């Protein structure tokens, strides 16, 4: 049986960073797998997690629990049967609802395959100060279903956000466990704690039916001789726009960082090739992180998520002007 953990958390809570930390500190003799889902179709997380010591299967373009759970089942079966991992980590999109995922993982068909351990939910305590986030059904139910709450981004916490978390914990924490973390640095031993939270979550109205066309199991890629392409996705009150550029395209370093910092959206995530090397970009609201990346995907990818209508064409025009190589 494969020890399995669900790692949830709202947009920008630090799930991928935390999983990268867990992978970096895993037992080298163990084989791990990650099933990752993103709201957009570009596949940023899959690119970041690749070559970090785990088999990765990604389900881009919405929620893995939609379309009757078929994309998730296919990805899950592929990893379990072909990879035979010692541990599987499942990372749903920050806009994902946990109920149908947990229902699937605890279904009789998976009893011989899956040893479901603690579900972790990462939360940035500052999100508890945002009424729009607090009222979000997915945010509330991600917290409600977790066995362990990770109060992440401790280095960014304020007195007000700490008090908000303490108040929330006093009223909703119950007998569960919580840990505080900075940059997703949590101890791997948390993954082996048992699943004890049996709260019955209501079905999510936003996830009770399929969203649009059936999604596949692979992120977008570039056809031969195409220099770049754009992809749009929307649902659950959010919209995403992402771009892929071929490996020969380089961007002005300062320009792309300013573009990402100033874009009028809530979330920016990308891995971009610049004249100074590969740069990983991660922005949630005003929090802006950049770091050099050694392992390169075969292209540049960047994705923006917004809860309000956004003129993607204007953003695209300014992005294209930052290319240093000639392209169409």
Index terms:
328 residues; alpha/beta; 9 helices
Please report the number of helical segments.
9
Q: Using DSSP, what is the number of strands?
A: 14
Q: C-alpha Rg, in Å? A: 19 Å
Distance between the termini: 50 Å
Which shape, going by the Cα principal axes? globular
Largest sheet: 8 strands, parallel
Structural class: alpha/beta
In N-to-C order, the SSE pattern is EHEHEHEHEEHHEHEEEHEEEEH
Report the uncertain regions: 207-214
Helix content: 25-40%
Strand content: 25-35%
Give the rounded overall mean pLDDT: 87
Short summary of the structure?
With 328 residues, the chain is of the alpha/beta class.
What would you note in describing this structure?
- It is a single chain.
- The chain has 328 residues and is α/β, with parallel strands linked by helices.
- The protein contains nine helices and 14 strands.
- The chain has helices at residues 15-24, 44-49, 70-83, 98-105, 131-134, 137-145, 159-172, 253-262, 312-320; strands spanning 2-9, 32-37, 54-59, 87-91, 114-116, 120-123, 148-151, 177-180, 228-235, 238-246, 267-274, 277-284, 287-292, 299-306.
- The strands form two sheets. Strands 1, 2, 3, 4, 5, 6, 7 and 8 form an eight-stranded parallel β-sheet that branches. A six-stranded antiparallel β-sheet has the order 9-10-14-11-12-13.
